[in-house]
Amino acid sequence: MIVFGKTGQVATELRKLLPTATFLGREQADLSDPAACYAVIMAAKPDAVINAAAYTAVDKAEEDTVLAALINGAAPGQMAKACAELGIPFVHISTDYVFDGQGDAPFKADHPTAPLGAYGRTKLQGEEGVRAEAGTHAILRTSWVFSAHGNNFVKTMLRLSETHDNLTVVADQTGGPTSARDIAKACVEISKQLKTDPTKSGTYHFSGYPNVNWADFARLIFVQAGKTVTVEGIPTSAYPTPATRPCNSRLDCSMTETIFGVARPEWKDALSACLSELETK
Ligand SMILES: NC(=O)C1=CN([C@@H]2O[C@H](COP(=O)(O)OP(=O)(O)OC[C@H]3O[C@@H](n4cnc5c(N)ncnc54)[C@H](OP(=O)(O)O)[C@@H]3O)[C@@H](O)[C@H]2O)C=CC1
Ligand SMILES: Cc1cn([C@H]2C[C@H](O)[C@@H](COP(=O)(O)OP(=O)(O)O[C@H]3O[C@@H](C)C(=O)[C@@H](O)[C@H]3O)O2)c(=O)[nH]c1=O
Ligand SMILES: [Mg+2]
């Protein structure tokens, strides 16, 4: 098994689950060189590949579009091409930001995509490149990833709580926070099942349960962490950012459960595990 990514949130959790897999950091495979990603798979001939590397700085991607398009847009298709030629499963992670966030119904995996920003557009290009190769694959769209490692909203909130008693957080963007550990477990299970049943190939959704808005998520983080911080819910318009985020990030994950038996994990359980891990760090 080859995993692209070594130090990211999901890659770090995959390292714990797959001690014998080969993890490629950017020194071994730079995703800004898509042909190199193809070559490294063809040379190693693994039994499966997971791509957990990406350009994830949502606001920075608005300016850094060329690099984001290589890493998120072009590299996944080259990985999928190598996997298709070798006849091995490819699991690729994508995002809720491929949708426009309209309405309040959970998005089904076949709902039309319409990304609002450069990160989402480049991630969609990556998905399209993977689907075009038509090999054994799963594109797993997830959302709002958190873990004790790397950058994420949970760690940002804890850091801000060191210097603030009150925070303003958007209350009109709703989605499912998802722990990197649960995503890693889902990727491993899905790659196993694809090996024995390639007809399960397709695009799937996986996010933590239940859906919540960012302000309420922040409040729960502070409750669980035992911090007395007041969170004022604000509209997105009061928190301007370079990239527009979708207001509705709800993902309909039912097919992932039906086809793979992988259910939406409770994020509150994962959050307490994440907070304990941060305490002992
Ligand atoms: N974070 C989130 O909230 C969400 C993430 N996703 C998707 O989930 C997947 C995993 O995300 P997550 O674990 O949070 O990502 P992180 O931002 O934590 O990690 C990204 C990883 O990609 C690597 N990487 C970045 N650029 C390159 C490059 N040029 N060459 C090689 N490696 C590179 C990074 O390496 P290095 O450490 O060297 O920088 C890092 O290991 C991604 O596909 C992402 O789009 C989906 C929804 C939400
Ligand atoms: C720090 C902060 C953020 N916010 C808002 C901004 C944003 O709308 C929301 C979450 O902030 P973040 O910076 O974590 O958002 P963001 O980096 O856009 O998170 C996204 O990352 C990419 C990679 C994905 O794929 C998505 O699923 C999603 O997780 O909270 C506040 O309202 N107040 C604050 O003090
Ligand atoms: Mg971010």
From TrEMBL:
Q: Which organism is it from?
A: Parasedimentitalea maritima
Its needed co-factors are: Mg(2+)
Family assignment from sequence similarity: Belongs to the dTDP-4-dehydrorhamnose reductase family.
RmlD-like substrate binding domain location: 2-278
The note on cofactor binding and number reads: Binds 1 Mg(2+) ion per monomer.
Pathway(s) per entry: Carbohydrate biosynthesis; dTDP-L-rhamnose biosynthesis
Keyword ATP-binding assigned to the entry: answer is no
The protein's matches in CDD domains, at most eight in alphabetical order, are given as:
dTDP_HR_like_SDR_e
Q: What is this protein called?
A: dTDP-4-dehydrorhamnose reductase
- What functional role does this protein have? Catalyzes the reduction of dTDP-6-deoxy-L-lyxo-4-hexulose to yield dTDP-L-rhamnose.
Question: Coiled-coil stretches, from where to where?
Answer: none
Please, which domain of life does this record's source organism belong to? Answer: Bacteria
Key words of the record: NADP, Oxidoreductase
This entry's Gene Ontology molecular function terms read: dTDP-4-dehydrorhamnose reductase activity
